[in-house]
Each structure stands twice: as structure tokens, then as C-alpha cells.
Design brief:
- The structure is a single chain.
- The protein has about 110 residues and is an all-alpha fold.
- The chain has one domain.
- It has 4 helices and no strands.
- The longest helix is centred in the middle third of the chain and has 17 residues.
- It is elongated and about 50 Å long.
């Protein structure tokens, strides 16, 4: 019984956003195709998570991959007043490394 009270107190005094409580959520309604709905329904059963959780993850991934501004590959962070330890790679070397990692032949 003491552990249950301790657990309740712990959750009660956590800031918003901890222990599964999400702050600043907005509700939206979307229409999806029957195939998409069935795919998410099957996925939610297989993963034992709600369809809403899967859709939130998909939206976050889309936002990260497509909507957010990406920095250029040639812009590598360097501390102010410091120089890189070695030679910086050329654009061609960066692309070669990226394509090689994905198994694409140039």
C-alpha cells in the first residue's frame, strides 16, 4: 500500500509532459482512406498502442523530414574562436559518404 501512495505522489508532483501527460495538445479531425485506416488499426493492435499515438508519431516524422528547415551539409558547427581539427570534407566527399551509406551507386 505504501508503494501505491508513493507512486501516486510521484506522478501527482511531476511537471506537465512527464508520465504520459502531454501538454498543449490540439484536436484535429481528418478523413483517411479505408486502406490507411485498416493499416493503422492493424498496426495499433500489433504494437499495442492507440491509432492516435501512431498518427502523432507519423506526423512528427513527416514534420522532421519534410517541413523543418535543414542546415546545409557543408555547414559544420565550429566553436567560436576555434578551428576544425583537420581538413573539412568537400561537398563531393559528403555526397559520396551519404550515397555509400544508403547503398546507392553513383
Amino acid at each position: 500500500m505504501a508503494w501505491a501512495i508513493a507512486a501516486w505522489l510521484y506522478r501527482k508532483h511531476q511537471p506537465v509532459g512527464v508520465c504520459g501527460i502531454v501538454d498543449a495538445m490540439r484536436t484535429i479531425s481528418i478523413s483517411v482512406s479505408r486502406d490507411d485506416y485498416e493499416a493503422f488499426r492493424r498496426g495499433s493492435k500489433r504494437l499495442r498502442r492507440s491509432i492516435a499515438q501512431l498518427i502523432r508519431e507519423a506526423m512528427a516524422l513527416y514534420r522532421e523530414e519534410r517541413l523543418e528547415q535543414k542546415s546545409r551539409l557543408t555547414e559544420l558547427p565550429v566553436l567560436v574562436g576555434h578551428r576544425p581539427f583537420g581538413r573539412l570534407p568537400t561537398r563531393a566527399e559528403l555526397y559520396d559518404e551519404l550515397f555509400e551509406a544508403r547503398g546507392v551507386k553513383r
